[in-house]
Amino acid sequence: MVARSSFLTVFVTFIAVATAQQCYAVDGSALNSTFTPCNPSAKHSGCCASTDLCLSNGLCMATTDVYIGMIFSRGCTDSTGKDVACPQLCPGQATDFNGTTPVPEWQLQTCDVGQYCCRAANDPRSCCNKSTAPKVAAILDATLQLPDSPAASETEDMVAPAVASAPSQATTSPSTQACRITEHRLKVATIIGGVLLGTIIAVLAAATLWIYKEERRQRKLKEHYETQFSQTNAYRKALASSAVSTHANDFMEDIKVKCSGPD
Question: Which segments cross the bilayer (predicted)?
C-alpha cells in the first residue's frame, strides 16, 4: 500500500514537472524538446534553446554558429505570454502583436546605444530603418539566469521507494537534464566571457598603439613646421639685409658720380 502510494505520488510529481516544462513560442504554438524553461521550478519562466544562455528578463543569448551573441525572444511556459516572467520587450500575444504579423520568435537587432528593433528570427534583413518594425528604446539590463531546482532532493527521496520495488529502467530525471543544461550554459558563458575579455584587451592595446603613433606623428609634424618656419625667417632676414646693402651701395655710387661731375 505504501509502495503504491509512493508510486502514485511520483507519477503525479512527474506529470506536474512535465507540464511545467512545456514551452510555447511567442505566438503561442508549442515548442519541441530542444527548448527548455530557464527556471523549471517557477510557476512560469522564459524559454530558451538548450544551447542558449538565459537572461533574467526572459530573453536568450545565442551561443552557436553565426548567431553567437545575438539576443532572441523565444517564448515562455505561459502559452498566453502574459506572465511577468515571459519576455515583454517585443510584442506578443499579450499585446496582440501591436498590429504586426505574429511570429514564433523575435531577434532583437542593435541599432544604436539603447536602441533596438524586433525582427522575425528567420528574417536576415535589417529592421533599424523599417518604420513598421517594433522598436525598443531601453538598455537591455539583464543578468545571466541559471535554473535552480529546490524540489530536486525531495523528488529524489520520493523516487527511491518506487525504484526499489520496480524493475530497473534507465531514465533521465528532469533535475539531471536541468543540471546538464546548466553545466553546458556555464561552460558557454565562460567561453564567451574569455572571448569578450580577449577582445576588450586587444581593442585597448590597438587604441593605445594608435594614440602613441598619432602623438609621434603630430610631434614630428610640429618639428618639421618649426624647422621650416625658422629657415623661412632666416631666409627673409638675409634677403632683407642683402636688399639694404645693395640699395646703400647704389646710393653711394650715385653720390660719387654727382660729386665728380663732368671732366
Answer: 188-212
